């Protein structure tokens, strides 16, 4: 029996398929920068990517 994982931020079900380029960018940030890959839902990954583009200028080079 598999245990369903919830997003560490909002608690939503985590889906394996990334729904947008923002979600893919958020996944890259999760793997490379925050080391929390697989712990966020698509919406939180998208939000993370958008916020990083706006505020993390040192990463956007």
In short:
The protein is built from two helices and no strands. The chain has helices spanning 21-34, 42-55. The model has no long low-confidence stretch (mean pLDDT 89).
Label this structure with key terms.
mainly alpha; single chain; 0% strand
Helical stretch tally: 2
Largest sheet descriptor: none
Question: Any low-confidence stretches, pLDDT <50, length ≥5?
Answer: none
Question: What's the gyration radius in Å?
Answer: 12 Å
Order of helices and strands: HH
User: In terms of quaternary structure, what is this?
Assistant: single chain
Distance between the termini: 44 Å
Determine the strand fraction and express it as a percent band.
under 5%
Query: Quick one: how many beta strands?
Result: 0
Instruction: Assign the structural class, choosing from mainly alpha, mainly beta, alpha/beta, alpha+beta, or little secondary structure.
Output: mainly alpha
What is the 3D form?
elongated
Helical residues, percent: 40-55%
Mean pLDDT value:
89
Explained architecture:
Helix 1 (21-34) crosses helix 2 (42-55). The chain has helices at residues 21-34, 42-55. Helix content is 46%, strand content 0%. The model has no long low-confidence stretch (mean pLDDT 89). The termini are far apart. The protein has 61 residues and is mostly helical.
